[in-house]
Protein 1
Amino acid sequence: MGNIVFIAGTRPELIKLWPISWIMKNQGLDHSFILTGQHCIKGSLLCPLAQILDSITYEALPTLSLSALVEKVKRRDPKVVIVQGDTNSAVFGGVAAKLNMSCLLHVEAGLRSGDVYFPWPEEINRVALSRISNYHYAPSSAARLNLINEGIQAEKILVTGNTVFDAVEMVRKDKADNLGCPVFGGLNKRILVTCHRRENWGRSAINIMAALYRLSLNPKVRIEIIDHHHNAVALLARQSQFFSPRINVVFPKTYSDFIESITFSDLIITDSGGVQEEAFYLGRPLIILRNITERSEYLQDGASILVGVDEELIVSKSIELLFGKSRASIPVGRAKFVTGASAAIVSHITSAQL
């Protein structure tokens, strides 16, 4: 087997590629990373994810640049390049791989919202990667069907499940002594909020923040907003008209601390695709700040609700999930049947002798 290069530029990519790399390392498979510089991730991972940066060979670009990435890949000359998801880093990595005539493997292939402009530019990136990848690792049968409907050969698609579930499980095992099981029904209801998408800037951010402020007027509610370099809602939360002693804006957490926060929250409010997946796995009720989602399978049990940025809907549906008598109670690990995606990917790479 030739050398393998992972290309990643954002924290979610590295998190979802981490379990694959971990298995490769344990099996003695030669691999390394190129970090594109799209996000600053080295300081945000810490324990246990920092272990991956401490134990692998990687090069880091100062900022995302297609020409610089092409040159890096050319010098490495990998037989196999692995990219994940739908970021600009993934697309640039895919282009660099094809220009080097490397075999391109796409992890989390086949997600589709059906709207080329939403989410933007992720939907365009997904479609573009499907056109140039040699093999497609789909997280679900629905994703596989999307690819087949677009003309991708069935033998080039492998339904693996989602590697983020492997990452969550690795974190939970690492922190097993501290995490325990979530305990609910206390006096306070904890809401965890992440919001970073371009679509939720401007008026949308004001609507979201107004809804959070109204929720915070309930003395039983505590809200934690994770700051982000694109988080307009966190900026608004610091303004006087939205001040509330029950709203706390915090810096980005290490991944293990973030998973712990999800585990012990009564409700997650987010516009993030990755957080939808993590909340689903951990069994947390979820308000999705989008009008459409490429992860529609998470809406089927009623514990995940699409509300867009409608202030009234955010408030009413949040109250319903927090205090309603029919509030879903989903055990941690309900999606364990789809863990093992990372092992399936490594098995395919080795058995196919790519």
Note: The first helix runs from residue 11 to 26.
Protein 2
Amino acid sequence: MRIGRRSTPEAARLSMRFRAGGGPALARQRATVVSALVASAALSTVGCYQLGLIRHLPDPPLPMFDSDTVDASGEAYVVGRTPDGIAAAASAMATAALAVWGGPGVRRPKLLRVLTAIKATGDATGAVLLFVEQLQTHRKLCSWCTLASLAHLVTVPLTLPEALRD
């Protein structure tokens, strides 16, 4: 009995199109994945701090940043009784997966393109709300969360052209 997945000619073509393909639609997909990976990496670092895996989150030497205080606050553990960095990192990875689901470039189904744009817009909206919450509650920002927020904001204009295309 064979264990594992078997390739198909279509899967081999898909592999080649993702790795060697070109065009603006695929370039935007790749950029969307990169921005989601940046957000996920930053938020995973926050999650490691929130779980006690690391003791300190280094910040740029600017007075508005205090990641340790912001990410240790009770607000960071309210939703789902879990560290919000872990949940947010998983959400960013879901955006990365959704961005490439259905294949590379212009051949993706319209529904997947629209869902990707909706998810990216939701991520960006949540990032802005978190930014405001941090300023209102702590008068400080988490630099790692700010990086993730910027990555989420970059993702929205990357997904809109494909969502709006017929």
Note: The helical segments are 9-20, 24-50, 67-72, 84-100, 110-138, 143-164.
